[in-house]
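User: Predict the structure for this protein chain, please.
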Amino acid sequence: MPRFRYLLLIVAGAYLLTGVAQIRPEERGVVRRFGEVVARPGPGLWLGFPWGIDQLDRVRVRTVRQLDVGYSPQTGDDSTAGQLLTGDQNLVNVKLVVEYAVSERDGELDDFVRNRDVADAILARETEALAAEWVAGRPVDEVLLAGRASLPRWLGDHLPARLAPHALGVVVQRVTVDHLAAPPEVRDAFEAVNQAQTAIRTRENQASQEASQRLREAEATKFRAEQQAEAYRREKVSFATAEAEAFTKRLEQYRKLRQTNPDVHAAIWWDETGRLLLGLKGRGRVELLDAHLGPNGLDITQFLPPKKR
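Assistant: Here is the predicted structure, written as structure tokens:
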């Protein structure tokens, strides 16, 4: 009989100890009494009613959790998980890594405790659905080239609103693309296309650089030509201005001489005519007859035969 009492006391003590728990520093507790949340104790020793009355759920709220979503190379090439259809009817394999934590807000902490068993499944489903939506709106080239940078940003903007109706009590901190490629069956063809596109872009860049260089050279040539033309114009204008000024001065002098000498125009005419004839003689155009004048006039018998050329 005493042994039975001791055994009963031990069982009762063990039962009462189910109402005692230690909550670690990175944890928050949620106490449900007959299914209704009555307390959310923080780190430290928790004392409550024993099992059957109180139920304590300890949740790590300061731990970042990771969830793999989509394609997994380890499952084999026959798996369709994470195979998404692009806007131009091509397939791409996408694997995402979602990093999330449990919210420390009281209501959201309660939501996580109630839905913790399905939280990962819902989060993975909604993430993959959003990724499929983004991929379906773009051609395969854009998905493969820009997906690693653009897709995580797009998911980060749209995923919280997509998860809100499910009341999971989680906060998505970051989404990264762990794998993004064409299926293995067509990967070689895509690699060849990517190499060709890279070569095209390289040649376009080279052509652009060459065009820029030629444009700079043409602009330099144009600048030099403009400078030379401007210098030539200034020289001609200066020369013409000097000639005009000289002519104006001569005209003023002729006008003054005419007032004192009425025959000045005839003298000028004979002076200019003499210069013209000397110029023509120097070029072999005419032969002056002054040397053939004698006391009896012009002696045509003294003309020499024309020079042979």
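The mean pLDDT is 81.
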